[in-house]
Each structure stands twice: as C-alpha cells, then as structure tokens.
Amino acid sequence: MNIVSFFAGAGGLDLGFQNAGFNVIWANEYDKEIWETYEKNHPHTILDKRSIVNIPSDEVPECDGIIGGPPCQSWSEAGAMKGIADKRGQLFYDFIRILEAKQPKFFLAENVSGMLLGRHSEALENIKELFRNAGVGYELSFEMVNACDYNVPQDRKRVIFVGIRKDLGFTYQFQKPNFKKLTLQDAIWDLKDSALPAKTSNKTNGNDCKIPNHEYMTGGFSTIFMSRNRVRSWDEQSFTIQAGGRHAPIHPQAPKMKFIEQNIRVFVPGKEDLYRRLSVRECARIQTFPDDFIFHYDNISAGYKMIGNAVPVNLAYFLANSIKAQLLQNETKHQLKNISKEAVAI
C-alpha cells in the first residue's frame, strides 16, 4: 500500500510504516536542517520541501494512507474556530484539507498528550469533527498511548488518531501490546564508555565519532532543568526524549539527583563528573532508530531536535502492522461476502 507523510521530520513514523510493508512514496518536511537526514535515510521517497500551506492537493500523489504529526500549538483558537488564522494552527487544518481532497483509505495523526488538558476540550472536539467529516467521512478512533508499552525503552505519552474511510465499513480498533518493558540497560548499555563531548559551541565531532552521532551536548543546566530529578537508573525506562538538547535526560551512570527543597535539586556532591546528557545516538536508540540511521547536522542541537520530534520507530511499526492487518481482514471479509452472493445467484 502506498502512503504519503506530512511533517515527516527525520522519518521515525515513516520508517515504522516502511518496516511494516508500506511504501512511503512521498513525504513533506519544511525544516531545511532535516532535509539531508531524511533524504539519505529514505532514498526511495520523494521529499517535498515546501510548507504544507503552499502545497496544492492535486500535487500530492494518490495514496492508500496519509500519516503525520501536525503541529497543534493553537488549540484554544482552534476550539473557537480561530486557529486557521494562526499560522501554526493553519498547518493542522491544511493536513485535513489534503486528507479531504485525497480521500485515502486511512490516516494516522500523532500529537502530544497536552491536547487532552481540559482547557483544550472544545478544540479537541472540533478537530475530531473535522476528521470525521473530511470528504465522505472517516470512522475515527482516538487513544492516548505510552511508548514504553510498545517495545520502546521510554516513558512517552502521545495521542494517536486513526481514521478509516466510512465506505470501508469498519472502525479501527487499537490493539493491546504484549511486550516486556525495555530498560535503559537493554537500549544503551554497550554505548556507555564511548561517547564524545561536543566540540566548541556544541559543534559535531563528525567522523571522529567511532559510533555515528555518539556525542553529547555540553554546557550548563538551567534552574528549570535542576528543579526535577533528570536521572533514570539502568533498570528503568528513560524519561521522554525531548526536542531540545538542553533538556536531554542525564545518563544513567549518574546517581539520582539530590533533593534540596521544592523545585531545587543538585548533582550529588563528589559525583559531578558522572552527570552528562545522553548522547544523540543514545537518544536515537531510546527512540528505537537503528544504528545505521545516521543523523546529519553541524550543530548537535539539530540532532537532538530531529530525534526528540520523531515518533518512536517501534511504536510506529506496531501501529502500522495493526492498521494493515485490519484493512486486509476487512478486504478479505468483503471478498468472501461477494463470493457468497455470486454462489447464491448461480
């Protein structure tokens, strides 16, 4: 089945779908810092580099599915039907505009769990209705998942929308995963002794990294960062990998941060040398990117951004397999029904 991807980023969602047997024929990403990484890791996918706002729907290839994570910073405006006037909100509406025009069999949209906050309830209901009424309409399924349940060594809560075109006659059912939870030790133990600090101004070490991208951001830690414990132990799952290197979790070689008072913690005195940020490659492992997926950047902050904004590959793979299985099951059911009708007619 052919699919297209919007807000593709480095392509974690795309890779998961590819691994499940989908063919990502076309993708869209506007951030120029990501283009080289996407193109070199997805050589068989056409990358459109325009903003989605400037892409006419008839220039998007015909497809069986549309996937992506539209930015949704304008929830309150969207709830009051003002979000379209906000450039950030407009991106979400353009995702729906193209969905309405292409009418694929299914779509999947991923977003942050913050959209479930009470103050966004009106906006959320509005967006659900837009999905349900796009074109001939979609049967919408909606659930918050935690990546740690899907063979991903990370606590990462995200909201997933899956829509099935109404004429197909079924509603997607989220499947319950049955994986043993992976830990930081499972994911990054073998990398513990080989990370390099970034060069001056957090520039990349490039080919000096024996393991590609195995380098970490240096520099101070903000008071906000120091207000909470940022260390998970080897036998735990990672904190959420965020899009900013300054907020990367601390490597599990360090002891848990010492509580001083509310919103104030410190590194354990005498152990300060153990507190380093996770490297770009360690973050990629935690997001379940394979080691042969190379991130290209000059400043390593771009590497953290690409990885932190991605959908974990294993989560994407699980969802893609589930969607594929249910589409095929439905198709088989209709074929058998038609055969029965033909037999009765004879």
From TrEMBL:
<feature type="active site">
    <location>
        <position position="72"/>
    </location>
</feature>
<dbReference type="GO" id="GO:0008168">
    <property type="term" value="F:methyltransferase activity"/>
</dbReference>
<dbReference type="InterPro" id="IPR031303">
    <property type="entry name" value="C5_meth_CS"/>
</dbReference>
<comment type="similarity">
    <text>Belongs to the class I-like SAM-binding methyltransferase superfamily. C5-methyltransferase family.</text>
</comment>
<protein>
    <recommendedName>
        <fullName>Cytosine-specific methyltransferase</fullName>
        <ecNumber>2.1.1.37</ecNumber>
    </recommendedName>
</protein>
<keyword id="KW-0680">Restriction system</keyword>
<keyword id="KW-0808">Transferase</keyword>
<dbReference type="InterPro" id="IPR029063">
    <property type="entry name" value="SAM-dependent_MTases_sf"/>
</dbReference>
<dbReference type="GO" id="GO:0032259">
    <property type="term" value="P:methylation"/>
</dbReference>
<dbReference type="InterPro" id="IPR018117">
    <property type="entry name" value="C5_DNA_meth_AS"/>
</dbReference>
<dbReference type="InterPro" id="IPR001525">
    <property type="entry name" value="C5_MeTfrase"/>
</dbReference>
<dbReference type="InterPro" id="IPR050390">
    <property type="entry name" value="C5-Methyltransferase"/>
</dbReference>
<keyword id="KW-0949">S-adenosyl-L-methionine</keyword>
<dbReference type="Pfam" id="PF00145">
    <property type="entry name" value="DNA_methylase"/>
</dbReference>
<keyword id="KW-0489">Methyltransferase</keyword>
